[in-house]
Amino acid sequence: MIRPPPLEPGSWVRVVAPSSPFDRTLVRRGLAWLGSRYRVRFSPGLFARSGYLAGEDARRTQELNEALADREAGAIVAARGGYGLGRITPELDLEPLLRSPKWLVGFSDLTALHLELSRAGMMSLHAHNVAGLGRGDAGARAAWCRALEQPEAPIVLAGLTSLHAGTASGPLCGGNLTVLFAAQAAGRFRPPPGAILLLEDIGETSYRIDRMLTALLQSRALEGIRGIVLGEFTDCSAGKYQVPTEQVLRERLCGLGVPILADLPVGHGRRNVPLRLGAQAHLDASRGTLQLE
What we know:
The protein is α/β, with parallel strands linked by helices. Helices cover 31% and strands 23% of the residues. It has two domains: 12-149, Rossmann fold (3-Layer(aba) Sandwich); 155-292, Glucose Oxidase, domain 1 (3-Layer(bba) Sandwich), CATH 3.50.30.60. The chain is built from ten helices and 14 strands. The strands form two sheets. It has an eight-stranded mixed beta sheet. A six-stranded mixed beta sheet has the order 2-1-3-4-5-12, with helices on both faces. The model has no long low-confidence stretch (mean pLDDT 97).
């Protein structure tokens, strides 16, 4: 996997809005904080809105392609997730990014682009978007900077919950379950052989989570994975049938026979530990640990 160069204070950071519109106060706060450490560049169309999209497809495609081709930028950071990136993914040109590697940073809807970079052989960072940085959590901001400025440093997470015992190693991939489900339907989700799969989501009922996992299982998309790490399933309800989300995750995933860890502090809650997608991950479900090299 290609690992982009580390950022330094004063590096150029490009901010894009490829998905949904956002809370302007949070994003402006995030931009201000980014500007206190890095040099920030964004297009005037960043604050555009077209219904549930941050502007028309053409605007968002042009903005993102310009960022991918920006040779000065050390990182491209999403303003927010939401929905919309999957509409423009086929129109993106990744060649300039592969010639001049830079970090793609974000999560949620940005999972669609993380998948494209995984297929192209480049690492990316599953971490807070600009709106998340705008909340002002000093610890989260420090971890965000550390992940980009020291990308060679190992990451160790302990105290996780074991759903299925065992150990496994492989490249980390994945992200938001809903986006992975949609990407599979579009033929754009192919986990690397022997991957450790990351899953998280927000606002889904347990039967919808069951539906998405069942589709991934029946499509055989998960056959080659060696392990699973589950982040937060924020505001995911038991639904009118009162079936807890955790029960669905256990029932649908443990049949794969691979080690599974839950309660990873990653997702749409306040906790969203930066993780390098594409890095070699070591999962020990007996000890409740995940380590990224």
